[in-house]
Amino acid sequence: MKMNWGTGLVLAIVGFIAFIMYFVITMSTDKAYSHDLVVEEYYKTELDFQQQLDKETNASKLPENIHMEKTAEGMLISFPEDMDFSEIKGKVFLYRPSNKQLDNEFPLSLSSHQLLVPDNRLVGGRWNISIDWSYEGQNFFFKEEINY
Questions:
Q1: With a cut of 50, which residues of the chain have pLDDT below it?
Q2: Which of 110, 114, 111, 106 is nearest to 79 (CA)?
Q3: What pLDDT, on the 0 to 100 scale, is given for residue 92?
Q4: Under DSSP, is residue 59 helix (H, G, I), strand (E, B) or coil?
Q5: pLDDT in tens, 1-39
Q6: What residue ranges do the domains of the chain occupy?
Q7: How far is CA 92 from the centre of its chain?
Q8: Which residues, listed in sequence order, are joined to residue 3 by a DSSP beta bridge?
Q9: Which uninterrupted H or E stretch holds 77?
């Protein structure tokens, strides 16, 4: 059989479509490629976004905001010194974009102006740390992306 340019063009297009379909089917059926949402309750989180912006505005007006630094024991989170640490309430959320199983949330329970997140909770890589906290009835929000 003699092959002309039209037959070659059709075979190339059919081969390309087969190649793309193979990858689409492989990516959508293989359990190794999990397609999770960033958060489980996406729409509820979106509705709370304006409140979060207000809390971030409150935090930006503070003379001293939360400060974070990496130490040998873990991540040291320092709260403003001019506040009574026993009155600070809230929660800390550690979000790992690459692995949902490493996400962690815990309540704030301060015994000083500093909170230590132990080294065993933070494996190396990118983390999004969010702290939703309140002091004397005013709400604040702090978030930072770090590479640990």
A1: none
A2: 114
A3: 92
A4: helix
A5: 678 898 999 999 999 999 999 999 988 887 777 666 666
A6: 1-35, 42-147
A7: 12
A8: none
A9: strand 74-78
SS in 3 state form for the chain? Answer: CCCCHHHHHHHHHHHHHHHHHHHHHHHHHCCCCCCCCCCCCHHHHHHCHHHHHHHHHHHHCCCCCCEEEECCCEEEEECCCCCCHHHCEEEEEEECCCCHHHCEEEECCCCCCEEEEEHHHCCCCEEEEEEEEEECCEEEEEEEEEEC
By DSSP bridging, strand 126-135 and strand 74-78 are unpaired
Lookup result for tokens 């207000």:
54
- Asked whether the beta carbons of 91 and 106 are under 8 A apart, the reply is yes
Residue 125: CB partners within 8 Å, gap ≥ 6? Answer: 96, 98, 147, 148
CATH entry 3.40.50.300 includes domain 42-147: no
- Could you tell me how many helices (H) and strands (E) the chain has, helices first? 3, 7
